[in-house]
Amino acid sequence: MADLSRIPEREDLQRALAARHGRAVQEKFNQATVAICGLGGLGSNIAIALARAGVGRLILADFDRVDITNLHRQQYKATQLGEFKTEALAANLREIAPYLTIETHTTAITEENFEEILAPADVICEAFDNAEAKAMLVNGVLEKLHTKYLIAASGMAGFGSANSIQTRRITDRFYLCGDGISDVADDIGLVSSRVMICGAHEAHMVLRILSGQFEP
After folding, report:
1. Is 140 helix (H, G, I), strand (E, B) or coil?
2. 90 near 134, Cβ under 8 Å?
3. Strand partners, 59
4. Do strands 174-178 and 166-171 pair parallel, antiparallel, or not at all (unpaired)?
5. What pairing do the DSSP bridges indicate for beta strands 174-178 and 149-153?
């Protein structure tokens, strides 16, 4: 059990973040809401990075449970096997950022529910494994939530160079991270380091957008 007496006061954490990011930028992070669709290797790493940066509210959506095959690349613990990813990740995030506001949706994102779930978000991160789910979300957001910023990913499998993972601006409000080529279906492996790099690209682009910097 965590010793709650050792958790810093909210004001102390805010001062520490403002000292690193600047007060004006940190205020923008504090007020932001970011949605993360899919909480696997990409999504769990994105969430950790944004929580550490002091983003004020995260919307977490995933229907899956933590599995032993997830542990090599996702931000879960062996003690959390069998838990819903939404619940496990929320618990981990609260240890890192105790004053973070977290909204969880333990359900699949579909054409029928994505607008309602994602409407409060300023920025939406696509972090699905399934190609059809990726296409559904990207197309849906671009067509129906066109005032939102959307960051998606394509290509992070294998042991290729980390330098091939990049962020590209596709339209004014749509960004794509990854190498654009590699596919885990090609049996080239999927390792934590490369997945984390792609997740970091997504998270960093979120922070750039929130701070008013829109080029990758």
Report:
1. helix
2. no
3. 35, 103
4. antiparallel
5. parallel
